[in-house]
Structures are given as C-alpha cells and as structure tokens.
Amino acid sequence: MKENTLAPTPGLLRDAAGFLFCGTMKPPKNKQPEKSRDRARDENKKNIAILTAGGDSPGLNAAIRAIGKTALDKGWSVIGFRDGFLGMLEDRWIELKKENLAGILTIGGTVLGTSRLKPHRMETPRGTVDARAKLAATCKRHKLDALVCIGGGGTHKNALRLAEKGIPILTLPKTIDNDVAHTDSSIGYSTAVEIATEAIDRLHSTAHSHHRIILAEIMGHRAGWLALTAGLAGGADVILIPEIPYDVDRIAAAIKRRAARGTKFSIIAVAEGARSIDDTKAYEAAQHAGKTARNDEQKRVAKTVVEKLDADHEDNIFRLARQLNTLTGLESRVTILGYVQRGGTPSYRDRLLATRLGTACVEKIAEGKSGIMVGSDGDRITTTPISKVAGNLKSVPLDHPLIRSARHLGTSLGD
Ligand code: F6P
User: What class is the 12-25+44-187+346-389 domain?
Assistant: First the structure.
C-alpha cells in the first residue's frame, strides 16, 4: 500500500488500522505530493505539515482532521509527518487528502503515529544527534509555510527549540494531564476524566461490598488535574495530587472516621505523581540541586538522585496501600488505570476542542502567524507565544474552586 493512497472510508476501524499500519512501512519515494505542493506555491497558497508528538490522547485525529480539512478547503497542500519528530528527521510523511481525513473524527490515538524523541537530542541507530538543523532543512525542502505540532509540555519545549532555528511553527495543546499553560483545557483531558470517573464509579460498588480501601492510580505525574477532577466527579473519599504532599497518618485518620460512622470502605484517587511530605521534600531538594549545579559532575549526581527517586516512586501506591492496611486494619487493594485513560473514542468535548483549535490554527497560518500556541479560554480561542508556554507547567492552584469544593465536602486531600 502506498503511503498516500489510503482508501476512503467504507469501514472506519479498518481504514484507521490501515492508516496506522502504513506508518510502520518504509515510505516509498513519491514525487506526486511534491508536484501538488509546487502547484500550491504557484497559486500563492500555502504548504503545511502536521505532526503529533509525546504521549497520544483521544482527540488527536479530530485535530488532524480539522487542520487538514480547513487547509484543503483553502486550496493548500497538507502533509503529515509520521511518528513525531522522528518521522520528520527520517522524512517519513504522507500527503493528507480529503479521503484519508474522512472517518477519523471519532477514532482514538493518532493516525500519524507519535514518539517522545527530542530534536536536540535525537536517539538514532548512530547515537544521539542534534537534529535541529536537519529538521529545518526538511521544512525548507518541503517549502513549508507552517509546521503544526500537536503535543504537551515536552513538545512545546521542542517546538521552541525549532522555532529558534527559524521553523515557522504553531502548536496545539494535547495531554490528558491538562498541565499545558495558557489554555483552559488540552486535547484528551476531558475523555480521560470521563474514563477515570467511570472507573471510580465501578470501584465504589466492589469496595463497598468487600468493606475495602481501594486506591485508584490516575495519570498525572506532575499535575493533579485528572485525579482531582475525576476524584471529585466520582465521589472519591480521599484525593491525592502532586501539588498537595500527603501525610499517611492524616489519610488513615480520615478513613477511620468514616469507619467509625459505619462506612467501612473508602476510595482513594491517587495521582501518579502524588508524594508524601517527606518524599516531596527529598524530590524537590534533588531537583533544586540539579538546577543549581555548578558543573557537569554536580549535574550528573543530581540527575542520578532524581532518577533513583523516580524509580523508587513507581511502586509508591502499593507502599501506601500497605501502610493504610496497617494503620486502619482495613483490607486495601490497588487499581492502576494506566493507559486505558489514554485510549479509545474521544468525548464530545475533546472532539469540539480539537476541531475549534484545529480550524483556528489554520486561520492563524492564513494571517501569517507562527511561533504561537493556539489554545482555549472558555468559548474564546487564544494565542500565546510558544516561548511563554514552553517549560511552564500548569499546576492545580491550591485555592482552585475544585480544591475548595473537595474541602467543603469533607474529602481528604491528605494534608
Ligand atoms: O503526559 C501524559 C502521560 O499520560 C502521563 O500522565 C504519564 O505519566 C505519561 O504520559 C506516561 O508516558 P509514557 O507514554 O511514555 O509511558
């Protein structure tokens, strides 16, 4: 199957699977898209490329579709790089036409594929290379007027690195963690909230039947939006997030208070990155040491300590379950929701967010804009320089209305 001759959409899943499968094939040398982009140039129209980078999330295809269809409607030429910056480095791409943008709105994942590689430290079979100049050359060769990168925190840092090399780049925010700054929501977040909320609902009945504590690990390694929102929506009794270091004795006391009232089960929504007060202190000290290191050796040592703390943290939720078992006398169980939260059909909110951001992004390109993230603020579309988004984590503010609601309801936040 040729990369740019994907069939139209008689069966959604089959086509989507075909699309994904193509991404793993070596790209054929194909002159045809080159011609169509030259034609676009002749008519003073634009050539754009799209890529998706970082962890996938539901709604990415809706964004690709919105950008692609809006651009095609203007008579522009659109290509999609495979597998994020890696595919761009290897110049693996497909031309996006009406027929391969059809039928993907409701499909999870990304038909373009993704990767977590960083342009300035790209791991290749020949070792780690700084690929920025090569990526800039790829843009020139394809005569790109704009490169649209759809991604989260890491992608915004990478986009900034490429913008600094002169690539006309625009970004859309995507992450189930919802931790990208300067947008009220990111593509994938709302779907993940629904999935995690449903999981908590289901855990309730079994926890109730067995009089158990069930700890549900919810994604979010640096920000607690997902655990907080799903925890509150699902009526979790305890919600633990990275922004509020917890004290295990206080959690146990909250569970014991419930048990004393006759409610012998509890649901605890635990964000991946939630840490105890002591662990948070140790982690912050190691990160601070890395940031203030005066030489390479100090940097290396600090990095090793952070990596060790991260590795130790991996089974934190199991340690916490054992501690609560001991402290409360109640049986404790752990459920890790994991990648289920990132898969499957996007919610209507994510489809609309992706569609609004994707179409607005093309309007901005038409106006000659680049170096910006196209984000959302309620019904409004916002644009923010990528330099202000990159490296700027959107944490849950401690006075956020959801935090206040949780406290009013008597939900323990572990502090
Ligand atoms: O950033 C999104 C996210 O799903 C995080 O919540 C999670 O910690 C991480 O990605 C997992 O990354 P990976 O896909 O590389 O395992």
Answer: alpha beta
- How much is the pTM? 0.90
Partner residues linked to 93 by β-bridges = 81
Residues 256 and 328 sit within 8 Å (Cβ to Cβ): yes
Q: What are the pocket residues of ligand 1 if the criterion is a CB atom closer than 6 Å to any ligand atom?
A: 55, 116, 152, 175-177, 219-221, 272, 342
Phi, psi (degrees; rounded to nearest 5) at 163: -60, -40
Using one digit for the tens of pLDDT, what is the confidence trace for 107-126? 999 999 999 999 999 888 88
User: What's the CATH superfamily of 192-344?
Assistant: Phosphofructokinase domain (3.40.50.460)
What is the token pair recorded at 30?
């194909």
The pLDDT tens digits for 142-172 are 999 999 999 999 999 999 999 999 999 999 9
Q: What is the pLDDT of residue 355?
A: 98
- Give yes or no: 177 in active site: yes
Q: Is the dihedral of CA 304, 305, 306, 309 positive or negative?
A: positive
Phi, psi of 224 (to 5 degrees): -105, 20
Q: Which residues touch 261 (CB under 8 Å, ≥6 apart)? A: none
Alpha-helical (H) ranges within 81-220 are 84-89, 98-101, 132-141, 153-163, 189-210
Out of 15, 56, 83, 177, which one is annotated catalytic? 177
The residues spanned by each domain of the chain are 12-25+44-187+346-389, 192-344
Tell me how far the alpha carbon of residue 223 lies from the centroid of ligand 1, in angstroms: 12
